[in-house]
Design a protein that fits this description.
heterodimer; A: about 250 residues; B: alpha/beta; six-stranded mixed beta sheet; globular
């Protein structure tokens, strides 16, 4: 592993982050907020069709929307970005630099997480108005979102590195993203899932991400530390896998 | 020896052989030119040397590092200039070069200082705050060279560095490459424009899936035999019978190219002198073949051998 000095590692990460954030220069603020429109639209439709939702279902819906957004960014978008980088030769450039793979992936996911924050803010701001419930917002939500982004980014990166083309990467990463969201208790509680699926969901990082977000939105703390700890383990494991197992060199 | 390649072969999963049994030696501080037609395997070879593509067979040693077994050990000592630096497309010229230096471990101020010097030397001062995506092809090419060369890597690979440059910028780029060689840095230059690169390169290898020939420019010129070329310009079709030892390589209504053994130089010049005095030809240039002609000759030979 490359130089582990904190200053060098931090500097490298920040420079990689700046490079990734520069890709948003061509987008206006409107474009950054547009990804919040779909979840807000979904909330509006469900409210209109289903009438007033009880608090628990409203919180499931908001948490689910946030996890879905993060899944799209960190798996689907990451997969396509990495595949595009391979095709354009950008990845070859980074592969010749003495940078840590996990910091490179982390920089991309952090950039897209930051870019996705405005839409998260819109979801959280509109939810009480549309759903009619007060939701608790806590800074711990940022930590949970960051850990979730790291955990899911490794999956997206692996897909992008191994898919044959950007189109294939797009298909696989969307399939995996939707699979993770709907095979785990993201929009619903684990108790409402079939037994077998509930057991499978125990290994999905999205399970713990959704649970942690729900706990925060309720304004509770019970169980938050456990979920954050498991998410942290996923995040560390995914970055270790990216660093050690994912190959820059093609066969 | 900075780069030692032995019996390098790459066969893709589809069964296509990209390169076969290529062996090359590149010395420390050499400007080494890799030439070949499209599809010759130049990019495949370069990607293997950089540790980006796993060979099917053969060995690659760069500065003593076994690149086949430990490609990750090479990073930081090499740099690569892709034809288009898409990775940094959304940065300005100044940002791209500074960040490239910082990612190679340079501290902020030295990176900024060296980037500024590079921008001046490459004639990019007017564009230092322009996004790479908004640059013309030529300016982008020069910026790519700056990105590849900051932090003084030991081995620099430049892929078609003069491809989109006007003549003036081409001279700037070639001077830059010459300076790299003088500073004892090893450069691998991939180019089709052999004649243009000749003044700056120490050694040339021409490949077409396999190594056709390698050597210094003088060695390559003499490799196609002791033949010289006469280029004649004339206003009307020239139908003069030439001595038997001459071969008409090209003949149009206004230009004729002859090949002749160098030892017959006196006889050929005598004939040309007569034609000049008679007004049948307007201009004549005699000399050894240029490297582009060597390149064409070897390509044609390889094609004929394949058929």
């Amino acid at each position: 592993m490359r130089d582990l000095k904190l200053v060098g590692a931090t500097t490298e990460f920040l420079i990689l982050l700046k490079i990734q954030l520069a890709t948003f220069r061509m987008m206006g603020p409107f474009a950054l907020m547009i990804s919040g429109v779909l979840p807000v639209g979904m909330m509006f439709v469900m409210r209109t069709i289903g009438g007033e939702l009880p608090l628990d279902r409203a919180i499931n819906l908001v948490a689910g929307s946030m996890v879905m957004g993060l899944g799209n960014t960190c798996i689907a978008t990451m997969g396509q970005i990495i595949a595009d980088m391979r095709l354009s030769g950008s990845l070859a450039y980074y592969a010749t630099l003495p940078i840590a793979r996990w910091r490179f992936i982390l920089a991309i996911s952090t950039a897209y997480l930051l870019a996705g924050l405005p839409s998260m803010v819109i979801i959280l701001a509109m939810a009480p108005l549309i759903l009619g419930h007060t939701l608790v917002l806590h800074p711990a939500m940022l930590l949970v979102l960051a850990l979730g982004a790291i955990a899911l980014s490794g999956i997206g990166a692996a897909i992008g590195l191994y898919a044959r083309s950007p189109i294939a990467a797009n298909v696989y990463s969307l399939a995996v993203s939707f699979g993770l969201v709907f095979l785990s208790p993201v929009y619903y509680t684990v108790e409402s899932m079939p037994y077998a699926l509930a057991k499978v969901s125990a290994i999905m990082p999205t399970t713990y991400l959704a649970q942690a977000l729900r706990i925060i939105l309720y304004g509770h703390t019970d169980g938050l530390i456990n979920n954050v700890a498991i998410l942290s383990l996923y995040a560390i494991a995914m970055m270790a896998i990216v660093q050690n197992r994912i190959r820059w060199r093609e066969r | 020896m900075s780069v030692r390649i032995r019996e390098l072969t790459k066969i893709y999963d589809s069964g296509v052989t990209a390169i076969s049994d290529v062996s090359l030696d590149i010395e420390l501080g050499q400007v080494f030119c890799l030439a070949g037609p499209n599809g010759a395997g130049k990019t495949t070879l370069i990607r293997q040397v950089l540790g980006l593509l796993e060979p099917s067979a053969g060995t690659i040693e760069v500065y003593g590092i076994d690149v086949v077994k430990h490609p990750e050990r090479l990073r930081g000592r090499i740099s690569y200039m892709p034809q288009r630096p898409y990775a940094l497309y959304h940065l300005t010229v100044s940002e791209a070069i500074v960040f490239a230096g910082r990612l190679r471990g340079m501290a902020k101020r030295p990176a900024q200082a060296q980037a500024e010097a590079i921008i001046e030397q490459l004639g990019l001062s007017e564009h230092r705050h322009t996004l790479l995506r908004n640059l013309s092809g030529g300016m982008l090419q020069l910026t790519s060279m700056g990105i590849a060369c900051i932090a003084d890597p030991e081995l620099t690979v430049l892929d078609e560095p003069t491809a989109h440059l006007d003549p003036h910028k081409r001279q700037t780029a070639l001077q830059w490459i010459t300076n790299l060689g003088r500073s004892n840095r090893t450069v691998i230059l991939v180019t089709h424009m052999l004649s243009e690169a000749e003044p700056v390169v120490d050694k040339i290898a021409i490949i077409k899936k396999r190594l056709l020939i390698q050597g210094t420019p003088a060695e390559l010129r003499s490799s196609i035999g002791e033949f010289w070329k006469a280029k004649l310009s004339h206003a009307q079709t020239l139908s003069s019978p030439w001595p038997m030892f001459c071969t008409v390589a090209k003949s149009t209504s206004t230009k004729t190219e002859l090949l002749f053994p160098r030892r017959q130089f006196a006889e050929v010049t005598a004939v040309i002198e007569i034609l000049l005095q008679a007004g049948r030809i307007d201009d004549a240039n005699l000399g050894p073949p240029c490297l582009d002609e060597v390149y064409i000759a070897f390509n044609e030979k390889a094609q004929n051998d394949a058929e």
